Amino acid sequence: MTRSSKKGPYVDEKLFRKVQKQNETGSREPIKTWARACTIVPEFIGRTFMIHNGKIFHKLFVTEDMVGHKLGEFAPTRMFRGHSGGAKKEA
Amino acid sequence: MPRLAGVDIPGEKITVVALQYIHGVGAKIAKDICEKAGLDPQARSKELTEDQLSKITSILDSEYVIEGQLRRQVQQNVARLKDIGSYRGLRHRRGLPVRGQRTKTNARTRKGPRKTVAGKKSVKEMR
Fold first, then answer.
1. Is B79 near chain A, with CB under 8 Å?
2. Start-to-end CA span in chain B (Å)
3. Which of A12, A58, A64, A80 has its CB 3.0 to 4.6 Å from that of A35, i.e. a possible disulfide?
4. pLDDT at B88 over 90
């Protein structure tokens, strides 16, 4: 189910304000955020974010192609290291 | 056997069905084409005249993305997802389902034939 277009994209307000402030001051500091559900809007292009994945912050430089996606899509929350015994086959 | 959109040669079938042999043309579009070109959807496609064929071709060219162009478009969309390093791109790269389906069982369309792992508990053993 997609979000109602009446509402427009979900953008985390606090984060958006931070980005606007950066755009004014011209600061390039990465922004730490937990707002994984926040949609990437054109204002974010060229900004660097540190997106929390539950454990660490993933660095992400936003490009034009990423507009419309959510921040969380770029910070994987699970790490698959392979099944046990998988290494034995290699050796 | 009439020839449409390059390589496609649908034959003994009725027109609406034959048109669906073109990549990117399904039931809906096939029906729409028949309507726009003023064809009988139930007539065998071999009975189509040159005139009707060229009419279909012009409709296909102007209104729909089909065959190679469509394949390329899909490819590009997937490549974009991979390129920007998104989760969906990652799933495409690993050949796993992209839209959050379960992978504990099923997902065979994406994963391909079963690769049996020795020592893995079977369903019978787990009970």
1. no
2. 58
3. A12
4. yes
